[in-house]
Amino acid sequence: MTRRLLAIPALAALVLLALAGPASAHVEVDPTEAMAGTTTTLTFTFHHGKDGTATTGLEVLIPDGVVVEETPEVPGWTVTVDDEAGTVTWSGGSIPDGEHGAFPIVVTLPAEAGELLFKTVQTTEAGELAWIQEEADGHGEEGDHPAPRLVLTANPDVTATTESPTTTESDDDATTTTERRGVGTTVEADSRDDGSNNAAAWFIGSGIAAIVAIAVGGYVLKRRAG
């Protein structure tokens, strides 16, 4: 059974054979609306079989982006998750026509808002019912055997983040500015150093001249006294 939903076009014949069934007899998903990006329980329900016979199996094709987290137990039924085929199948039980059937799964939904179709095959004692039709083109109305439909609403907790533009100084500009500042500082320091050195040289020169003058004067006086 897990391979049938992978060949959906081949099920068109099943749909045509089942047109005699009541139009209101659908497999539905509950809830019909959920918040995108959340983990929730989806329950596939029905209350009919085919031609008054009991339902003996249900197979649901899981849409892309939906992750099956858990399959709660349904008494009297065996549930199989086929990750490769992307299906969840219930088998081994029986629900008489006219009685309520409910098959839950816990899933994590995609983060984007939109619409998901859970194409389903219902197996009965009189044959199969393929609930796989999408909306009729251009009319926005469901076909006679619509696929269970889940509407995903936007998640307010998921916000788009944008980086605010920032003005940064380029490496070249920063280097140029640094060099200019360095040059200015160096020139200033050199100017101060030149003044200090000149003053020191002047004091040293004056001191040497005074010592020489005193020494010469003393020598002259000594010669005259002798």
Describe this structure in words.
- The protein has 226 residues and is α+β, with helices and mostly antiparallel strands.
- It folds into two domains: 4-153, Immunoglobulin-like (Sandwich); 169-226.
- Helices cover 27% and strands 29% of the residues.
- It has helices at 12-17, 171-225; strands at residues 28-30, 33-35, 39-46, 55-61, 67-70, 78-82, 87-95, 101-108, 114-117, 120-124, 127-131, 149-153.
- Strand 10 and strand 11 (127-131) form a beta hairpin.
- Residues 8-23, 160-170 and 174-194 have low confidence and may be disordered.
The CATH class of the largest domain, by name, is Mainly Beta
Instruction: Assess the beta-strand content as a share of residues.
Output: 25-35%
- The helix/strand order is HEEEEEEEEEEEEH
Examine the coordinates and then state which fold CATH places here, giving the name of the CATH topology of the largest domain: Immunoglobulin-like
Poorly predicted segments: 8-23, 160-170, 174-194
Classify the helix fraction into a percent range.
25-40%
Average residue pLDDT: 75
Whole-number tally of structural domains: 2
Distance between the termini: 143 Å
**Count, helices:** 2
Rg (C-alpha, Å): 46 Å
Helix and strand content put the structural class at alpha+beta
Question: What does this entry show, briefly?
Answer:
This protein is of the alpha+beta class and 226 residues long. The protein contains 2 helices and 12 strands; from the N terminus they run αββββββββββββα.
